[in-house]
Amino acid sequence: MNRNRRHVLFFVSAAVLFALLAWGMHDLPPFGHYRGPYGDLVNSATVYERHITDAITAVNFDFRGFDTLGEESILFMSVIGVGTLLRRQTKERKKDDAGESDELETRRAPDPSDAVKVITLGLVGPLVVYGLYIVTHGQVTPGGGFQGGVILATAPLLVYLAGDLKTFKHITSHSLVELGEAAGIFGFVAIGLLGLALGGQFLRNVLPLGEAGSIFSGGTVPLLNLATALAVAGGFISAIYAFLEQTVEMRMEGEE
Amino acid sequence: MSIFPYLVAAWLFLVGLYGIISSRNFVHITMCLAVVQSSTYVLLLAIGYKVGGVAPIFADVPVGTPAVDPVVQALMLTDIVVEATVVALLLALAVQIQKAAGTVDPDRLLELQG
Amino acid sequence: MLIMQVAILAFVAVTGTAVVLTRDPTNQVIGLSFYGLILALMFFIYQAPDVALSQIVIGAVALPLMFMLGLSKIRRNEQQREELKSKQKQEKAA
After folding, report:
1. Which residues from A are below 8 Å from C63, CB to CB?
2. How far is CA A146 from the centre of its chain?
3. pLDDT, tens digit (0-9, with 9 covering 90-100), for B64-84
4. What is the CATH number of the domain that holds B87?
5. DSSP A255
């Protein structure tokens, strides 16, 4: 069907859907008067039962840890998909080997200025420290494996922005990145199996719960935070590198 | 007023859907998908909110203070990270379509068969 | 507090509409980054700091980055195709 008919059909059905949604929303609890018992139960139980002060991390890695394993596997599979789709096909590799690199003269990017280099390279260290801080303090303050992992994954990009392409390629194509990602997922499952072996249930919290408010509280939760951070950071670096790969090749050929 | 957040969620959903069906570029479609996903965040947030509640972090407030629901926030947190990787997958698909068919226009793809 | 909540919700709705109605992908990426920031502000006002942290890092940094990379690859593929076509035309004319 052509565009106009498609638009008309959409507007009619969208109006019907909006009316149905508005009618259904009248039966939801009025905004601000949360009714359900589950949230209040979790809020009152996290500190006393699990010694974790951040209720969201407790829900993610302790009370509903199995869901987090499912989400991480989605992440893992998407990264595999990106790497597979963007791999260099054999005909592209043959073209580059034959020397027919079709890079225009004007596409070579200028070298960044000294100020940019100083600032970006100077920020790499603090960014990695900040990412690790967010990962390890996930059970005390807002943070955790997911946020910290993404922060860690943006650290190599600062190297790319500074124009240091050789170091960037060396960092991101290192096999440790893929190894780290796989180790993250494997670590999550291994801790779950440890819970199965020692406590009788998968992902049961079997390590000693520390004191609420310190870093080593919550039993298995700090370890799960680290495993998740590894998996997420490795996954994002692999995905971004798959996108950047051919750009980096072209620029390096232009410089040499 | 009490159903205003839910209406905003429904509006974002429909606007994103309109963007998807009326788009001429695969990358534009992917960004409209991000808008549709954000409508679910608004809905979940509105369900869990409690008037006068604080954030569910008990590092400096005593345990009994009324706090908002942490379960829906935990759902949203993992969802945001997974959304980014799914968007990366869709972008990789768009790049491959461009290489194979020469266009990123979904309407023109039906003509370029074979 | 109530005024801020209503205002930020209205702002989110308007910004989302603006993101969808921008047709050129390069312009839309900037709008998406701004939308991510406004969403993070909304999460913060609704007492969800964990989610706001996640949204800032992903929605304002990682997502626009991947979009820009994808767009630059698509643009380079288009340029290569056009070069190939013009080369073929020159060979035919000659």
Report:
1. none
2. 5
3. 888 889 999 999 998 898 888
4. 1.10.287.3510
5. H
